[in-house]
Every structure is written in C-alpha cells, then in structure tokens.
Amino acid sequence: MTTSDTVAARNLETLRAAVTGEVFTPGDVGYDQARQAWNLAADERPAVVVSAESAADVAQAVRFARAHGMRIAPQGTGHGAEPLGPLQGAMLLRTSRMRSVHIDPASRTARAEAGAAWQDVTVPAGEHGLAALAGSSPNVGVTGYTLGGGMGWLARRYGLAANSVTAAELVTPDGRLVRADAGHEPDLFWAVRGGGGSVGVVTALEMRLYPVSEVYAGALFFPIGRAAQVLRAWRAWTGTVPDEVTSLGRILRLPPAPEVPEPLRGRAFALVEAACLSDAGTGSELLGPLRRLGPELDTFAMIPAPALQQLHMDPDQPVPNQGDGAFLADLPEAAIDAVLALAGPDADTSLLSVEVRHLGGALARPAPGAGAQPAIDAAYVMFAVGFTPTPELAGPVRAHAQAIKDALSPWHASYDYYNFEETPGAASTVLPAASYRRLQEIKARHDPDQVIISAHPVRPARP
Ligand SMILES: Cc1cc2nc3c(=O)[nH]c(=O)nc-3n(C[C@H](O)[C@H](O)[C@H](O)COP(=O)(O)OP(=O)(O)OC[C@H]3O[C@@H](n4cnc5c(N)ncnc54)[C@H](O)[C@@H]3O)c2cc1C
User: Which of 169, 387, 419 to mutate to test the pocket of ligand 1 (most atoms within 8 A of CB)?
Assistant: First the structure.
C-alpha cells in the first residue's frame, strides 16, 4: 500500500459525503466492478475509484485527489485503457454514469456528457436526420474518441470529430469547472480537440452534427484466398473515389462463436467496407469496379446513418483485446504484400482483424480554427487487433500486431494515430511535432505537476 492509499483511506468519508456518485477502495464490495475497463485485458488497480454522477462530483474528486497527492486517471468506457497500466496509488475517475445527451436540431449540435457512448448520440441525432462524426463502434465513448481525434465513416467528407467540437466543459487540475470554446480558454479548447485528455477532466462536449440521414454502405466479403487481388483492387480504387466515400480494406478471421452468423462463422475473409454519402444509384456506380470482382457476399444498401455503427461488426460486449496501429504515408503493392505475408491466407497469426482505412479528403485539409490535429498527414491508417481470452494469448497477439506495424515501417508517416496506439507511449509519438510542443506549454501552465494521467502522456515544457 502506498502513502496515498493510506491517506485516502483515512479521509475517504469526506469524499463520500461530498459526491452523489460512489467511491470505492480496494476491498470494498463493488471495487472490482468499478475498476473494470471495457477492454477486459486491462487490469487497473487504482487506490480509489470515483464513479461520478455530475460535473460537481468530478470537481470534488479532483480537489480531493489534489489534497491527498494522488494522480487522476479520467475514464469513460475504458476502451482505451491498455496504455494506462495498473494506476497504482492513483484515482480512477469514471464518468460512465454521466451519459445524458441533448440534440439541438435547430443549431445542428449535440451536447454529450463525458460518459456518453456514441450510440447515445447517433440514435437521437438520427431521429432529426442528423449524423455525428462517430467511429465504427456504438459503445466507444464520445469523449476519449474525440479527444484523440476521432475518425469514422464520414471522415473523408467531414474530417476528424475533434475538429467538429464547438465547446468542452472540463474540470482543470486545480479543481475549477470551466467552459472552453472559441471565446473562452483558447489553449484548453485547442488542447482537447485532438490532443488527448491531459489538461483536465472533461465533463461534457458540444459538437456539430451533419445533415446525413441515410448512406449507401455495406461490405463485400471475399474468401481470404483472394486477399491479394482484393486489397490491390481496393487500393487502386481509393485513388479514384470522391471525398463522399470512406472505406477500408481488411482481413478478418471470424471466430467459430455462436453470435457470428452461420455463413461467416469460423471463416476468414478479405473485405472491403465502405460508406458513400450518396443515393443508391451513385453509390452502386462508385462501387462497380470492386463489385465486378465477384464477392461471395455483398451487403451494400441504403441504411440509416446510425446503422453505420454496425457495419464494422465491432464487439457489442466488453472483450479482452490487444491492438496496435500506424499512420501510413502510402500503401504501395509492396506494403500490401508485407501485410499479406503476416496476415494473409497462409499466415499463422493470432490476429482477428488487420484493416487499412483510406484517409485523405477533409482529413488532409487543415480544418479552419482546428485543434491539436489540424490535418492528418497520412494517406492510410493500419490497425491490427486480436482477442486475448486468456492472459497467455496477450503476448502472441501483441507480437503479431507489432510485427505488422514493423513490416510497414518503410511506409510509416511521421507519427502514429493517437486513438489506434494501444501500447504505452508519449503523446509526442502520436501528434504532429508542433502540436506536441504547444501541448507541452499548455501542460506546463495547467498541470505542471502532471496530476492528470492520460492515455499518451505529455511532459510539461521546462520554464
Ligand atoms: C471496438 C473499438 C472500435 C474503435 N473504433 C474507432 C474508430 O472508428 N475511430 C477512432 O478514431 N477510434 C476508434 N477506436 C479507438 C478509440 O477511439 C479509443 O480507444 C478511445 O480512447 C476510446 O475512448 P473511450 O472514451 O471509449 O475510452 P476510455 O478508455 O474511457 O478513454 C480513453 C482515454 O481518453 C481520455 N479520457 C476519456 N474520458 C476523459 C475525460 N472525461 N476527461 C479527460 N480525458 C478523458 C483518457 O486519457 C483515457 O485514458 C476504437 C476502439 C475500439 C476498442
């Protein structure tokens, strides 16, 4: 037990009395559930877990932690928990009970409390014919995803989710609840839009929504034996499509699990998944060159925008997993061959999925008045992931993901994607160099003692 554990235990009743949410320490009934991240592979063992119900609770928790010399790890769902480590002696500040969302159809904006998952926003926004810049999974948290950039199915048309944030409410490391927007707290407003969560604990985000009620979207499934042909054809096709098309090429090995539908269960595929902001006729025409390859299964159709979150078939329940990713400056045939050697039909791999997403479009153009990720200087992004139902599998899965990343190193961009970097590493490796330097200055002003623990740490600039 550390010094902070002891101090916290002695004074915890003060905190319990000050918050409407719950407070847990090791040994308490409920501690294990409260510390559990969505990624079941993460084993967080903080000295205190505060499950906040409101921004006022967050402020109380931050002040308590400061008074007792504890560091603070803010967390919503725990999808991104892997890089954090065990959090020994720290406070895990969970916002997962703060899920209320307000959609304003007139101004086409949403306000989401920090614990909201994307489905809490996409579904009510969809009732007004509006779409949010959500990612592939309905249960990923709005806050962590957006703080790290946020790339989803509308990304090539509308850019990063972070650059559609219009305001953030946060508790600063000194315990003040502030609103950061175009007219207030310019540094904090800049930092939270793509720079991660290192400058405070976000309690709510406001963001723009877009008039997208339906999209032409789906997947083409090919037997994995055709992976080379399919990925090369998809790569060539990405050079021809307009910004209205966001797509990915993927190798997917589906487990023989009962929840996987029969024609897919236990089989391996090469896939193209895409979303086209168009009617069915235009979408069909755009898809023509890939469809003519003759997929085994073709799920493309007009779908409501919220249904985009089922397209990638992300797990709907917490799972233990390990993954890794990299921004790629390009994806020539040699890069595809490198992926196929490690994950293709003949590979001995424990990875469930290796995907390459097509970037460019609005992602490549500096967003006006943008935050810490103004534009993505990479043409593609790779992400490799595997399930780790037993701890012994973590090593092999991590090694296989790392091997793919290494094999692609000749084509790496100058930094990695914040949200797809699941191994511990400084924010300097996942942000443009100029952004990291500015973030260091902001960290030095707002959190010189590094009280806030974030997925990718920022070292404060030296005075
Ligand atoms: C199944 C799956 C699908 C994904 N799909 C996509 C995708 O399509 N596009 C994409 O860009 N990313 C995607 N990701 C990556 C995802 O965006 C990151 O893992 C992200 O960090 C998850 O955010 P979260 O809030 O759910 O997770 P959390 O683990 O709760 O948060 C991650 C980090 O965000 C910060 N944070 C969270 N809440 C706060 C807060 N209130 N205040 C301050 N900091 C905070 C903390 O540093 C925290 O460690 C996916 C991940 C998974 C597991």
Answer: 419
